[in-house]
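> tool_call: predict_assembly(chains=two)
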Amino acid sequence: MLINIQDFIEFLRKTAQQGDQISQVVVPVRSEYADDTHTFFRPLTESNTPLFNSYRTVDPAKFLLYLPREQVFPAEQTKNRILAGVKACDLKALELLDAALLYDQFTDPAYKQWRDSTLIITSDCDDISSSCHCNLVNGQPFAENGYDLNLSQIKNDFLITVGSDRGDKLLDRIKSEIKTRKASESQRMQVEKQRKRIIERLTGQNKPYSRSSHYEKLRTIDPAPWQDESMTCIGCGACTHICPTCYCLILNDESKADQFIKQRSFDSCQYNGYARVAGGATPRPSMTERFRNRYLCKFDYMVHNFEKIGCTGCGRCTQACAGEIDFRQVVHNLQNMAIAVQ
Amino acid sequence: MPVLLKTTSPQDIENPYRVIPAEIYDIVQESPLIRTLKLRPDEPIVFKTGQFIELSIPGVGEGPFTPSSSHFETERMDVTIMKTGFVTNTIHQAKTGDRVGLRGPFGSHYPLDTFEGKNILILGGGCGLAPLRSLFLTLVHEIDRYNSITFFAGAKSPKDCIYKQAVDEWKQYPKVTFVRAVDEVPAGQEWHEDVGVVTVLLNKLDIDPADNPAVVCGPPVMMKFGARDLLEYGFREDRLYLSMEKKMYCGFGQCRHCVMGKYYACKDGPVFTYEQIKNEEDIWE
């Protein structure tokens, strides 16, 4: 299905304003600084312009579904939203968050509500950032499933693909309100071509970083290389907060005289107090150990827990790092070392 | 692949963060640093011995504790707590009549069905006796199901011994051998029982280790050497049960603070067999 981009944006604006079924539409918008090419998730308004394709936003979609701080008891009612412009790396991260936060008998009440009430529209990347590396972790710069609708840009139009019943219903609504056209075979081919072009750019950019995918060997390396890699780490926790798959939390007690209230907020395994128990003992007292823990968590522990690695290649941790540590480079170096040891 | 121990769910699986208020109806000062809160929850809390709950002081925070009362008692719950950090300091200032919050129960429990007809060894020290008291009281409630219970309890010094009043009674129970040891007897304190780290009591043990379960709980160093000594004595790795203490924040495997390699102490534990965790990192820290 083809639809004019401006028409689509107008449809989203109208939908948000009407507020009957959808109370908010969140989209990627450019930073207010002219020379900044990054985008951020913001509510769609009269005055801002969404930029759907480009590359991933600065803030992960996680921030909108698993809030940095929110009340979990008593759980509060969430509102129906459309979250548009989500990239494949963030969507893949939600699969892991689903596995972690919605498994069998335990459900995070707030995350579940946000997940249920948020319709997700993904969009193909038509650009990459210098830290993007989804191709190294079996990812790709477009979503294949798990979305409600997906947008691929063809000049002034979007090619819309349906991924769920919920998406199908929204598309019906779109069709009833604005003009749509059928996509031709050559237009579909064009999308394929664009996708291939971005994959080639990713492959080119990430050529220096090899991956063996035998991540379990990371555990076998002795402390010295970890120390070298973490030399400039200051333990600020930016990498974990910005990571789309990190979900470590602390529970704050905000109870009032007559009511118990629990708030959860982000925590980071990079902090010294993270695993400290009463009395002061901690399994990871040094920065190097905490640094190592983050890599092992992503490539070893999460694989055991969820049968997938905890990195989707968004590269946000690399961009957020005050110590200029490149995540790809660290994994590359350590893997090579692990293989050499074997 | 070692088998995971059984767990049961908290009562409100829709929201595991739900708090059940409870009133402190009595407080027992067990030792200078350890006290037992006697609680009456607003609704019965059904747990299995070995599981833990999160106890919160309104506006301050919460921490994981194992009930120290029998799991057959659901209207009331004892929780034995050592003063050792921020939250526990506040708990130690609580008074009778104060209200606290409870979440849970969470985690794995002692597999009592496999203890049937066995000679059970319980080995613990310090505040690690809290879950063991729960186990012990649960076992003696149905003592006919088991062959015998040997309970070796340790403490730093005589004044650090807990459950003082109950101990004399416990020693009288049929099929029960209860022996205590203290690490040292400082000048001015009186002691007529054993002296030495609690594992010295193993030389008084007269059961076949290959066929019987052993349960250990105590400070990390005691767990480490206790486990080593029991293995040396001949207990099997898959029948040696350890109650692990980690920073269990949420209680149900989401916050990741208590991760021990591939396990969560809160969800896969706190009760583990030695066989399960022997190869994981940082287990004794």
